Model the fold of this input.
Amino acid sequence: MRRYLRIVVLCLACGFCSLLYAFSQLAVSLEEGAGGSGGKPQAGVASWIAGGGRGAAKGADGADTSAHPSRWDRYSLKIQPVERMHLAVVACGERLEETITMLKSAIIFSIKPLQFHIFAEDQLHDSFKGILDSWSFLQTFNYSLHPITFPSENALEWKKLFKPCASQRLFLPLILKEVDSLLYVDTDILFLRPVDDIWSLLKKFNSTQIAAMAPEHEEPRIGWYNRFARHPYYGKTGVNSGVMLMNMTRMRRKYFKNDMTTVRLRWGDILMPLLKKYKLNITWGDQDLLNIIFFHNPESLFVFPCQWNYRPDHCIYGSNCQEAEEEGIFILHGNRGVYHDDKQPAFRAIYEALRNCSFEGDHIHSLLKPLELELQKTVHTYCGKIYKIFIKQLTKSIQDRYNRPPKER
Done:
């Protein structure tokens, strides 16, 4: 009998505890309902978007959490922060217009919000600020302006390496210490598809890879590194650093193998010794140093196809980027100054179309037909003969981004 009484008492106790738990959960749900489930959290997330295009950020993830910290903390586990794609560029001299056109091409097609890190000479800062602030109505990007800075003890050597300011990119992991991942691009880059797509390649890195670049050449017979380099370089033809995707957290942590000492060195410790050893043997400055580093650490590099960094070398002597022939050009790299002369009119036509384009959807959509007509005038050049690869991906990007109803974008 006592045994049955104990079982009954135990069941009653369990039932009472279950009721208490049910009432507590009901109270929590009612409290959240009164707070407007998602109302405040959405406002917190949207606060960064509302400030898009402003120079000053509003905290680590762009959200202003100072007004109601306790309420934000309550919902922080339920609402994911807005993921921003970080894009860096270094602009000096006469590169203002080129850089602005590159930033415009990034904004036009990208889906997730962008964070621009612009490293520029002091005299360019006001111009950048004036233009980018005038785009604030877009509410899709944020930006920060940085001065050109090098380690003080060797600043002059770094400034004179290759082109003015070019080697600044080597120090981005050390300057942008709070940034986990970053896409660096030269000023003469044009995005023909969303930045989101190259940003997604970060997820394809294996556990040892810290950065991604495209080969310098596809055809060894016209390759520069394999024919002329007087220093180590990555792979068969080297890599081009005009488009460089970086997991900077891994870069800062890694100890790199090198040919200067048996001791592995961190990123901040390896750059100056490399420059001192090879400065008489390098032609392309910081790009050559990157090739040397990844020659000794090949497991650390993810190599993406040439369509992500398509340059005149891919068509100037005949088409040699098969991926671009099949799917079109994803990112156009107008090195050799081809946006500003008549040597490669196909490249210049793309540049001028995007430079003159406004942010209105109708205007963006309407640029395709006149652009194709302009490209048809370039068929007397090797690049012009394959002009359709210049607009294949561009057409798809415009259709995907601007042909869908607003709710589906």
Summary: The beta strands are 85-91, 114-120, 141-146, 181-185, 189-191, 211-215, 239-247, 301-303, 331-333. The CA atoms of residues 80 and 345 lie 45 Å apart.
